[in-house]
Amino acid sequence: MHARKLRMALIGGGGAGFIGRVHAIAATLDHRAELVAGALSSDPAKGRAAAEAFGIDPARAYGSVDELLDREAGLPADQRVDFVSIATPNHTHFPIARAALQAGFHVVCDKPMTTSLADAERLRELVAETGRVFVLTHNYSGYPLVRQAREMIRQGELGEVFAVRASYLQGWLHGLDPDRPPARGAWKSDPDKAGPAGALGDIGTHAYQLARFTTGLLPAEVAATLRSFVCPQPLDDYGHVLLRFQHGAMGSLTTSQVTHGRLNDLTLEIDGTKGSLAWRQEAPNQLMLRRLGEPTQTYERNPNAAYTSPAGRAACRLPGGHPEAFFEAFANVYRDGFDAMLAHADGRPCDPLAADFPTVLDGWEGVAFIEQCVASSRANGAWLPLTAGDSRGTRPAS
Amino acid sequence: MHARKLRMALIGGGGAGFIGRVHAIAATLDHRAELVAGALSSDPAKGRAAAEAFGIDPARAYGSVDELLDREAGLPADQRVDFVSIATPNHTHFPIARAALQAGFHVVCDKPMTTSLADAERLRELVAETGRVFVLTHNYSGYPLVRQAREMIRQGELGEVFAVRASYLQGWLHGLDPDRPPARGAWKSDPDKAGPAGALGDIGTHAYQLARFTTGLLPAEVAATLRSFVCPQPLDDYGHVLLRFQHGAMGSLTTSQVTHGRLNDLTLEIDGTKGSLAWRQEAPNQLMLRRLGEPTQTYERNPNAAYTSPAGRAACRLPGGHPEAFFEAFANVYRDGFDAMLAHADGRPCDPLAADFPTVLDGWEGVAFIEQCVASSRANGAWLPLTAGDSRGTRPAS
Amino acid sequence: MHARKLRMALIGGGGAGFIGRVHAIAATLDHRAELVAGALSSDPAKGRAAAEAFGIDPARAYGSVDELLDREAGLPADQRVDFVSIATPNHTHFPIARAALQAGFHVVCDKPMTTSLADAERLRELVAETGRVFVLTHNYSGYPLVRQAREMIRQGELGEVFAVRASYLQGWLHGLDPDRPPARGAWKSDPDKAGPAGALGDIGTHAYQLARFTTGLLPAEVAATLRSFVCPQPLDDYGHVLLRFQHGAMGSLTTSQVTHGRLNDLTLEIDGTKGSLAWRQEAPNQLMLRRLGEPTQTYERNPNAAYTSPAGRAACRLPGGHPEAFFEAFANVYRDGFDAMLAHADGRPCDPLAADFPTVLDGWEGVAFIEQCVASSRANGAWLPLTAGDSRGTRPAS
Amino acid sequence: MHARKLRMALIGGGGAGFIGRVHAIAATLDHRAELVAGALSSDPAKGRAAAEAFGIDPARAYGSVDELLDREAGLPADQRVDFVSIATPNHTHFPIARAALQAGFHVVCDKPMTTSLADAERLRELVAETGRVFVLTHNYSGYPLVRQAREMIRQGELGEVFAVRASYLQGWLHGLDPDRPPARGAWKSDPDKAGPAGALGDIGTHAYQLARFTTGLLPAEVAATLRSFVCPQPLDDYGHVLLRFQHGAMGSLTTSQVTHGRLNDLTLEIDGTKGSLAWRQEAPNQLMLRRLGEPTQTYERNPNAAYTSPAGRAACRLPGGHPEAFFEAFANVYRDGFDAMLAHADGRPCDPLAADFPTVLDGWEGVAFIEQCVASSRANGAWLPLTAGDSRGTRPAS
Questions:
Q1: Contact at CB, C289 and A307, closer than 8 angstroms
Q2: pLDDT > 90: what percent of chain D?
Q3: pLDDT of res. C390
Q4: Segment 303-362 of chain D within 8 Å of chain B by CB
Q5: Is B116 in the same domain as B244?
Q6: Same domain, residue pair B48 and B193
Q7: Are C369 and C386 in contact (CB under 8 A)?
Q8: Is C181 found in the same domain as C246?
Q9: Which end of chain B has the least Cβ crowding within 10 Å, N or C?
């Protein structure tokens, strides 16, 4: 069925965080890829030591990204890695992704893609130039019912979408001790590493992408009010963002990493002229459809139900009632990337800027979103223009 | 125990709406009042005809408010009504309340209190002058767990409150046929009757009052973006409001009467430095307390539980698990008013501007809130000052 | 609309329990009755003292049931009470109800109706003889969505019902101190007062009635396993009951008053060949309908929705989203009784054994259920025959 | 960290079912095993064709189980598979498992383990004789919060457990067309392949194992009432099972594959003298702890929370709020098996009958449970003795 397993190199993941491990599991869940190389830490010794836990052959456990790219590029085509997955702090995404693309590898990259729009722009150009696949791990877009929601909206089941509300609440910043460095996540509070935004960049970009991904609405203006209530550094840990989309629809995003006891509480609500949808990441196997005067419909993630859309069905691995969750959604984003990489390898059409999964354009949009939100907040919440990446014509508002 | 039943007159309630019936049931639920008189419609014949269904003696079923006030004022003290409850469209609240206060009656009034701040100011003055009890039916503040939330915050259980989010979603406006008058609620879409705001006045004022009531935070500034997506008249049916409270706390309110399938979905989330709370009106018997690293605590409305605060306990009529709901919460607001009326009757201290239940000051605040939101929205969401009624010193932020 | 208010006498309610207060509120919620007399305690002084809190004129606050019946019977027809509500410990239900019926009054009685089937049989005969209305307060049958469920089943929306599961879990017995008498509910653990069953009689009869009421299934056999894990007296506090209905359907009931932290957790699940229903008393405003391959449908208690059945609609007082709860359900049972009492007063047809609300027949069934369960449990869970009251022909299985 | 990847052979999985794929994903999720061989179908051609989709080298895609065992046993020790996973219809479990054990392989086997107790007994003996690891995939015991529940009970947090209730509801049998063979699952309705029980064997054994696993209670007697409401064959599709445990605790199990719209609705409720627990497989990241008079505690699957027990923490791969689900729970059972297999390989102590994960003893218990339930149901629900496997002394009731 799948001609060969793609070969993966992991950048980062050797520290205390969990996201490197997520990449390793998600990428290989369907046995379509194998993790064969890594530069798992900025500390070469640490990186090499971590390789064993990832099952990486010591010979391909590199001490640095440069070494990895250089050595892998020198391997025969049937041995060298096909793609690198970047699971490092934000400020390193750009140089690593740039180098990987220039070395001819496909790239899978965490968000936010870069810490400046100029860098994001450069990556967009590089992807266009190299034609390499670029996957941005907006993993929440991989949930089957998120894809079902998008498809329902595209099919007009909600009528015209006029409002979208996303809320992303966490509380972990209350656990930071200002007097000592945290075991992990420390860089998220450090502007030099995280970029110009805190919670907004870390989780707000997911919420924004999810709103864009599902509704297809094109942004026009943004107004933001960001606050730092608990964060020991001058980065936002709480914020309200309002959006004006083209043709009049409204959006709102709430981000918090200081709401006690919330874990990863991402919710999405979409209002259309014919119905409304609600979804919550922590209960991802249900999607609520409401229409005035009708019973609330709870759609289950259920590949065998007639109400499940083709895209929703394709994103499932298990029957309904056998819950799927975070790893599988993450794996779905990888899976889409793999299809594109194989198409590229086979010489089939594969425009990395026209893909249906999160790409460098989503990355560009996320960085543009951050920059305008930060600017708006500094301007006392003034409305500032916000534009979409140019591929968005492929996702027209329904 | 209760020396005597208070005598109630109902203004409005004879039409297709349900709120007049709610007043009649809530006010008498505890047998502390009896409904003895009414002017149930602006149409005298209709009003008299409706009286029977309310069990009102035809002799006291009046054709107009003026007639009611005049005739009742002329009755002996042991027969005439003690208070009038105003359940009429917004634009009539002011003249009726003013006349009732001037005639010496206590007043229970629906929200928003008036359609202009000048009128609200006048009522505040009148209450101060007459010393009559004035209850504004912000009925959601009567829920036992809302009162528990307030008491927990006052006791410092959340630490310092730095954010409050309220959301109030309905969808009924999708049911309006633009080509024919609706059976009920028509006036809510008519600026001449509803006042300057639509959903914001109808439900947003509840959400604002609830945020103020529970947190005790004092407002400083407001920014609003209001929209009319479905409403056939030029009133808002959807909106986002941001609040800056004194000392830096943030607030957000979302109002919608155009979210398909939502019925009366009022939610409240409060963030403090030591914990966060969440409550939902449609499941009012549970209150969620969250703290980082601890299990989520679900407080039940349960007068027998040690965790229930005195105010929460006092607001209960049934043991836990025997759910209480809308009527009982509404009745709790009445009950507080009755205590004040009896204190007034007995010559005990009773400052109608210092009461712990929603008063003319809440009414004033609601109207000020509406006016500044509408002004802000017209000014492209600019921040405008927002002030509290002057009694708010009695509700300091914890 | 309603020609006159019915006059109510309350028996019991003067102690620490809450059910007397529930009767007083529920019966008068719609202003169709007024509480005018009472014998509120077996202790005359205590009963008279309690009368004031209930708003009962001291002149009609009687020291005993006999006094009440005697004196009220002697009053002119336009003054004497129409009905007596019996809110006393189980063992007194029979003598009070018998005396009230014989004195010509309608009766509203708590469950279980009697402590022996012989007594239940005698009451059934008395109701037939006197023609007086007899309402058994199986209050959970008054919830709008319970009535909707019954109507949906009658209409065949579930196809043929083949299974029903009820579970009724409480935990309050863990709070009893075996070394001291409890403030209230003590009699529930005393076989002399509670009858032959503990939890089974107190809550199991509700669950059984609800299963019978909604499905209309006619019982054939029962097998029970009862336990006493915590109860200081030899009464069951935990039990499993299986039912075989006529034509092959199965039923199961679980009762517990020793499940820590459960308050009043009554759930009902019904399986039919075309769909299944689920309802939970602590969230009574929602009813779930499931069909294979379709989204779960959440029916809201919503009088304005087209999906609401006439019986469901008639049981509502508020629009959807404005939750109704325990009192209103209880009041619905009273309301049905009032209709019958007024029909009786007007000489309209009123067969007290053919009514659509819980009657003496439900009471008889409940006692029969208790006796056979206790007998089965003593016989090591053997299947024993179980019969329906003879009115059940009016509730055919769909 | 992990010395080497274990080599896996998969038996079955080449048909329309999903469980073979689940084994393939779960076993390799943590990169501790690799799928290298398979006999994926009883149809050799079909089995070989399916191998590619599983990434199995055609050279090790065998046409039959015998061929697989024979050929693998002949490979050098550093190439041949370590274990075989059996994902075939019930009636084939025994011969395959027996042959695999006899050939020296570890075994991972679906439930129910065999279709007769004699066969189960034989497998138990074989495991004792061969010393090979035998894992029964009672995958629900792999959920982190199920393990947390077990550990809480072992620690005495619930006091003495006196009751356990499990319910396992599905509805898929309504989708079977009696006139044509189903695409998959057909054998589940065929007594020759499924064994003496239908739903009871397919899902009831999971529920029983879960009750045993979490509470550690030792069974004494069982009474069952099984029905076939929809199943086209004479196997149960609905049933109620009561359990008497040693020392007096009660248990109840409800199984249904004919409850419309239920997907895989397995719930567990446990009552102790100090608290009660509730868990639901379809929302597996939450566990509810209730104590009289205290707020309900919702434990999240959260490795970073202090309230999480060591066993719960060890079973997590992601932070709280990043939901884990079916695959990861399944993988946890594999993980435990891998530890034992590696211990075996290293010559460390490894008693396959004393393991803390589901073993051949759970399999034996499940088959004994089925046989006694079927016998009881045929004897009109009589109580019959039920015994535990002999390792259960390692799981004392708390």
A1: no
A2: 84
A3: 61
A4: 304-307
A5: no
A6: no
A7: yes
A8: yes
A9: N
Q: In the block, which residue shows the tokens 């509406």?
A: B370
CB D71 within 8 A of CB D57: no
Q: Same domain for C131 and C152?
A: no
DSSP string, B250-301: EEEEEEES-STT--SEEEEEEEESS-EEEEETTSTTEEEEE-TTSPEEEEE-
Quick one: pLDDT at residue D397? 36
Predicted local distance difference test score (pLDDT) of residue A184: 60
Q: Are residues D126 and D208 in the same domain?
A: no
Largest CA distance in chain D: 65
Q: What are the structure tokens assigned to B243, written together?
A: 């609040």
pLDDT given for residue D390 in this prediction: 61
Single-letter code of the amino acid located at D90: N
D226-238 pLDDT per residue, tens? 999 997 778 999 9
Strand pairing partners for C34?
Answer: C7
User: Could you give the CA distance from residue C128 to residue A221 in angstroms, rounded to a whole number?
Assistant: 76
The per-residue pLDDT for range B328-376, each reduced to its tens digit, is 999 999 999 999 999 999 999 888 898 989 999 999 999 999 999 999 9
Note whether residue B217 is domain-resident: yes
Query: Which DSSP letter does residue A302 get?
Result: -
Which of D122, D139, D156 is a domain's end point?
Answer: D139
Q: With cut-offs at 50, 70 and 90, classify the pLDDT of residue D182.
A: low
Which tens digits make up the pLDDT trace of B180-213? Answer: 666 566 777 788 888 999 999 999 999 999 999 9
Residue A344: inside a domain, yes or no?
no
Measure C68 CA to nearest chain D CA, in Å.
Answer: 39
Tokens of A225: 């009010």
- CA-nearest residue to B302 within chain D is D293
Give the pTM: 0.96
Handedness of CA D292, D297, D299, D305 (dihedral sign): negative
User: For all residues of chain B together, what is the average pLDDT?
Assistant: 93
* Mean pLDDT computed over every residue of chain C: 93
SS3 content of chain C, % helix, strand, coil (to 5): 40, 20, 40
Residues A55 and A150 both lie in one domain = no
Could you read off the pLDDT of B256-291 as tens digits, one per residue?
999 999 999 999 999 999 999 999 999 999 999 999
Number of domains in chain D: 2
- Tell me the shortest Cα–Cα distance from D22 to chain A, in angstroms: 8
Residue A352 inside a domain? The answer is: no
Copy the structure tokens of residue D252.
Answer: 């109840």
The CA-based angle B183-B186-B187, given to 5 degrees, is 140
What is the model's pLDDT at position B23? 97
| Cβ of residue D191 closer than 8 Å to a chain A Cβ | no
**Window A:274-293, CB contacts with C under 8 Å:** 289, 293
Here the CATH number for the domain that contains residue A38 is 3.40.50.720
The last residue of a domain, from among A106, A139, A172: A139
Contact A254 B165 (CB under 8 A): yes
On whether residue A88 sits in a domain, the answer given is yes
The closest CB to that of A276, out of B254, B261, B292, belongs to B261
User: Chain-wide mean pLDDT for chain D?
Assistant: 93
Residues of D in contact with C292 (CB under 8 A): 171-172, 174-175, 260-261
Residue D278 makes CB contacts below 8 A (sequence gap 6+) with D267, D268, D269, D270, D287, D288, D290
Instruction: Based on the fold, state whether residues A129 and A156 are members of the same structural domain.
Output: no
Min Cα separation A288/chain C (Å): 9
- Distances in Å between the Cα of D289 and the Cα atoms of A66, B293, C219 are 52, 16, 36
Q: Are residues A83 and A126 in the same domain?
A: yes
Q: At what angle do helices D326-346 and D144-154 cross, to 10 degrees?
A: 70
From D351, D385, D386, D382, select the one nearest D365 (Cα to Cα).
D386
Could you write out the DSSP letters of every residue in C10-30?
Answer: EES--SS-SHHHHHHHHHHTT
How many residues can be counted in chain A? 398
For this complex, say whether ipTM is above 0.85.
Answer: yes
